[in-house]
């Protein structure tokens, strides 16, 4: 629930802005461009930058920054999951961005050029974009280049800099409602922005509320599918209603699944007859409620010194339905009072539907604030001293989880009793509906964990012009930063006792210094109106890893007024996150493919050599996997190259850029599916992987798997970015066409020295998303008088399943999504907009290596056609 004390504190701070009075000062007209600390009015950048304006965001009709950013052609793979129900590393309902498909940890997110605190429910890896409402955004700069020399660690694949409406004047009210054509996935949003100047400054206030409703997978996908004999057939989970067991004679049996019938009935287990359809208990869209409050105050302390303050608060509440909970396998004696088999057995998989669905729930509170002083020296150099503080706290859990220890007690005839008032009641888990309320109350509990993240930073920047050279002004920027971060996770005490989670606690601090210079080389020459070089170097001294020095060398060559050539060579690095370095072992049921199921060729031979019989079938799609940190892990390093050109005339602009990013000593945690596949492709070369899992000696099913991050891999990504933009007015009609395309040329991953190089180009995966060769977005806007209409098309290229199989799911075709929006200005203050996303209700393609919804939920739309109505009022 929302804390009244927290809301009161925020509104009290907002209110302070109304009583600050003084006289106005002159504004410094230079400003900082994303990708450089040098303040200059020149917008020409050596690095490729894509900018989304507030108008661009409004045309999408979307209420979440993650959904907008992940639809960019430069983005790929899993980011957050505010728009799907699949768990990612920052927890349910978080929202991040993943540039180049290299992972959220390699994309640095900034707010007005400053770092944001990580977000989630404890010891997280990246900011939660839910803390920034769409209505507060003036523009978003996406720097598609490594930028560690400018911004420090983590800017490997690029930087997303979100610029706020901190200087907004007036009042703007926006209200939006929408839902899918299946009458779910409801969306309600209310946004209010107020801004005003006072005697010596300016204040901006923003209040935003979003309520996203639920959408079920079962309304879109009746069951999980698998291909056999060229057809798609339903498959089911081996964790069943009523429970199943392995008897001492080796039989796999299923206990009664028909309520109010013979409770002692059991028969040989058959997945087709007894399996559980888990799609009935999964969301397709994350229900979420979100409240955001923000205030920005600028105040002139004198003619030369400016005070700037900012404070953001976000509360997110989200929940998801989940499959009925189970418990660990337990050995039961033949003479146990409720054992109907007469044999010793292992009760291995039971889905306890006698207990209400234990919904997951999360609540996070995030504060981000900053204060800075800035001014101009007598020589016109600009200085700024700033302090930034961010703190995120979260709670998550689920209702009615099962305590493994207590379940074992209720199945131990030596300590449990069948008497009515027994302190430890004996449990009848053998058949559906047999569990008594007494047993349920004894073995279930409300599982809840807490955690958080904190960020503090002090910085001082100085920039200005050094001298005039024959070709122009020699400019510089320099500064120093001290930053401290910490993260913690306190799991539920019972979960820790049962070995499900370990606590996490860690911190990191860094001292940094940087220098950047802009050197004009040539001006006003033939074929060279101006040639300029940008050089930057940064030294970073971390507490837990070796110090690093990174650099950037950029060149811009303005051939004439229309044509600009540009290129950058830079180094970058990323330090391990709190969880990668300090995380203990946590056990998760992760979707993992066992390659011995349906194996052929070398994999079949190696499976047989390991004792897995021919015809082996994996029992279910998930494997209990231990994940955690590695205290010996170090930073990863990267080298990036970009070069290209920009052309601009009065009505037309075009950019084409080549990018190449190579990461060495990459911090990598190989997915379970790849650990198994590599093991059985070459057991000698990948012996370490073969030692990371165990199989049941009787059933040969994998019972446990462990993966931890390590500095062992190399990753390289290369491709081309193309943007074409056309703006014109003909007979009073305004036209704009924008086309953004990325052609991926390379995406390779080598697990460790001597291992095979995994070719991801043109592949689609179960856990890393799509690496299609082509990804593109085209939008066309027409405006006439009070009317405006926009038609947008998103294209995702075809891809091959990295795990093969087929023929139906071995590849996915080209996919097109069409969106449309129309708006009408009723008067100068009031505008009405209506839109439809996924206009033709395009269904996601079936994928052999699907994770949920029979597809890749990180890449494709799983909700379907949805519409919205939006009202904007300015006063």
Biggest beta-sheet profile: 22 strands, antiparallel, barrel
CATH architecture of the largest domain: Beta Barrel
* Rg (C-alpha, Å): 29 Å
Tally of structural domains? 2
* Beta-strand percent range: over 45%
Low-confidence stretches: 1-31
Report the mean per-residue pLDDT as an integer.
Answer: 89
Helix share bin? under 10%
The gross shape turns out to be globular
What is the β-strand count?
Answer: 45
Q: Enumerate how many helices there are, as a single number.
A: 12
Looking at the structure, the CATH topology of the largest domain is Maltoporin, Chain A
Distance between the termini: 33 Å
Assign the structural class, choosing from mainly alpha, mainly beta, alpha/beta, alpha+beta, or little secondary structure.
mainly beta
Name of the CATH homologous superfamily of the largest domain: TonB-dependent receptor, beta-barrel domain
CATH top level label of the largest domain: Mainly Beta
């Amino acid at each position: 629930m929302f804390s009244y004390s927290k809301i009161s504190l925020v509104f009290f701070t907002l209110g302070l802005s109304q009583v600050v009075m003084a006289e106005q000062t002159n504004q410094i007209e230079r400003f900082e461009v994303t990708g450089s600390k040098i303040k200059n009015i020149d917008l020409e950048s050596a690095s490729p930058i894509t900018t989304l304006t507030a108008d661009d965001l409004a045309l999408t009709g979307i209420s979440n920054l993650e959904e907008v950013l992940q639809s960019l052609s430069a983005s790929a793979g899993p980011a957050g999951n505010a728009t799907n129900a699949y768990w990612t590393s920052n927890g349910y309902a978080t929202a991040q961005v993943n540039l180049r498909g290299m992972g959220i940890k390699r994309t640095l997110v900034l707010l007005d050029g400053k770092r944001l605190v990580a977000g989630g429910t404890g010891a997280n890896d990246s900011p939660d974009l839910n803390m920034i409402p769409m209505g507060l955004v003036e523009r978003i700069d996406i720097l598609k280049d490594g930028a560690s020399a400018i911004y420090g660690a983590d800017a490997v694949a690029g930087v997303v800099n979100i610029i706020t409406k901190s200087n907004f004047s007036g009042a703007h009210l926006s209200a939006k409602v929408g839902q899918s054509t299946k009458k779910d996935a409801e969306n309600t949003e209310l946004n209010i922005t107020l801004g005003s100047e006072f005697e010596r400054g300016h204040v901006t206030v923003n209040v935003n509320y979003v309520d996203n409703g639920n959408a079920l997978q079962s309304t879109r996908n009746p069951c999980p599918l698998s291909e056999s004999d060229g057809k798609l057939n339903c498959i089911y989970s081996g964790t069943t209603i009523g429970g199943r067991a392995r008897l001492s004679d080796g039989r796999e049996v299923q206990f009664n699944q028909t309520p109010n019938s013979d409770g002692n009935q059991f028969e040989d287990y058959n997945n087709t007859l007894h399996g559980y359809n888990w799609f009935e208990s999964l969301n397709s869209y994350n229900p979420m409620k979100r409240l955001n409050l923000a205030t920005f105050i600028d105040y002139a302390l004198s003619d030369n010194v400016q005070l700037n303050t900012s404070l953001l608060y976000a509360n997110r509440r989200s929940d998801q339905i989940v499959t009925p909970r189970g418990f660990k396998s337990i050995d039961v004696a033949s003479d146990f009072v409720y054992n109907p088999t007469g044999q010793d057995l292992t009760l291995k998989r039971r889905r306890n539907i006698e207990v209400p669905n234990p919904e997951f729930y999360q609540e996070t509170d995030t504060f981000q604030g900053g204060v800075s002083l800035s001014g101009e020296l007598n020589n016109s150099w600009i200085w700024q001293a700033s302090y930034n503080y961010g703190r995120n706290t979260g709670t998550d859990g689920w209702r009615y989880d099962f305590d493994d220890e207590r379940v074992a007690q209720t199945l131990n005839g030596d300590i449990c009793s069948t008497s009515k008032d027994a302190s430890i009641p004996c449990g009848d888990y053998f058949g559906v509906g047999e569990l008594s309320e007494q047993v349920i109350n004894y073995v279930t509990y409300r599982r809840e964990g807490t955690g958080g993240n904190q960020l503090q930073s002090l910085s001082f920047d100085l920039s200005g012009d050094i001298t005039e050279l024959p070709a122009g002004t020699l400019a510089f920027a320099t500064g120093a930063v001290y930053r401290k971060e910490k993260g913690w996770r306190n799991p539920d005490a019972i979960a820790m006792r049962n070995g499900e989670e370990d606590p996490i606690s860690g911190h990191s601090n860094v001292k940094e210094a940087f220098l950047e210079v802009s050197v004009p080389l040539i001006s006003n020459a033939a074929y060279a109106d101006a040639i300029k070089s940008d050089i930057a170097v940064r030294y970073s001294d971390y507490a837990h890893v070796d110090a690093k020095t990174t650099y950037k060398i950029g060149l811009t060559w303005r051939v004439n007024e229309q044509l600009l050539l540009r290129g950058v060579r830079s180094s970058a690095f990323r330090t391990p996150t709190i969880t990668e370095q300090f995380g203990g072992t946590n056990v998760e049921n992760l979707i993992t493919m066992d390659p011995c199921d349906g194996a052929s060729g070398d994999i079949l031979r190696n499976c047989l050599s390991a004792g897995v019989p021919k015809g082996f079938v994996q029992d279910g799609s998930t494997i209990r996997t231990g994940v955690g940190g590695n205290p010996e892990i170090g930073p990863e390093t990267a080298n990036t190259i970009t070069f290209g050109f920009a052309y601009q005339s009065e009505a037309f602009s075009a950019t084409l850029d080549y990018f190449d990013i190579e990461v060495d000593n990459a911090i990598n945690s190989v997915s379970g599916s790849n650990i198994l596949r590599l093991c059985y492709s070459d057991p000698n070369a990948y012996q370490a992987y073969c030692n990371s899992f165990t199989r049941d000696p009787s059933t040969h099913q994998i019972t446990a798997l462990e993966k931890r991050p390590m500095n062992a891999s190399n990753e390289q990504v290369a491709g081309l970015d193309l943007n074409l933009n056309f703006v014109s007015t003909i007979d009073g009609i305004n036209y704009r066409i924008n086309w953004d395309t990325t052609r991926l040329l390379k995406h390779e991953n080598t697990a460790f020295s001597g291992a095979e190089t995994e070719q991801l180009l043109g592949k689609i995966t179960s856990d890393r998303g799509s690496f299609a060769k082509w990804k593109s977005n085209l939008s066309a806007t027409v405006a006439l008088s009070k009317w405006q209409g926009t038609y947008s098309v998103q294209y995702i290229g075809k891809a091959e399943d990295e795990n093969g199989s087929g023929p139906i799911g071995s590849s996915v075709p080209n996919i097109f999504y069409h969106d449309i929006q129309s708006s009408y200005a009723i008067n100068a203050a009031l505008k009405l907009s209506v839109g439809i996303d996924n206009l033709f209700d395009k269904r996601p393609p079936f994928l052999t290596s699907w994770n949920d919804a029979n597809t890749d939920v990180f890449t494709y739309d799983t909700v379907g056609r949805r519409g919205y109505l939006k009202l904007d009022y300015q006063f």
